[in-house]
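Obj: model holo form, ligand = PRP.
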Amino acid sequence: MRYLTFALGKGRLARQTLEIFEKIGITCREINDKDTRKLVFENEELKLRFFLAKGPDVPTYVEYGAADIGVVGKDTILEEARNIYEVLDLGFGKCRMCVCGPADAEELLRHHERIRVATKYPRIAKDYFYNKKRQTVEIIKLNGSIELAPIVGLSEVIVDIVETGSTLRENGLAVLEEVCPLSARMVVNQVSMKMENERIARLIVELKKNV
Ligand code: PRP
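Output (holo structure tokens):
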């Protein structure tokens, strides 16, 4: 039996994924060791291999077949737009992709003004404004702390992830429009889905009972 390889988005996502995997008897002891510098972990008995990667790189590993399976946020799947199958909503990491800004920016959105939109997700923002809303906007790519943009005058609104809403509240911003709901998803390489169909299908069935 060949090894089935999993790419997990580093951090909370990976921790929650491993918790669900443990419930269905898939364990990987070493991966939880905080001091290790190892990059790839194996469960020899089950012929499974795991590695942790930066979220946006997970769809890349899966598309190229370096990983058969990946676990990553829906935001990353939409933004990376790779040729992979999304097979399961794991139900955790729930949040929303939203257009946010100061309350008075609502007027600008309503009148389809040519506003500036700061975001870490230019593809998602572009798709939302151009294809769904038919509104021409200027997209400004940032790499983090997106909420800063409307506060310091870089943009009128932002497209960003909202979980509890506390970052927005503490900075005098609000959700103006919802783009889409998000959560952790399992993705599969298109060739692996055919070649390893039985093992992967069985895994999906087991996971479904626990999500
Ligand atoms: C994310 C997101 C928001 C915040 C939302 O940022 O970009 O800033 O979490 O969470 P809340 O609604 O619970 O306040 P993250 O912490 O990932 O860092 P980033 O700003 O570098 O993207």
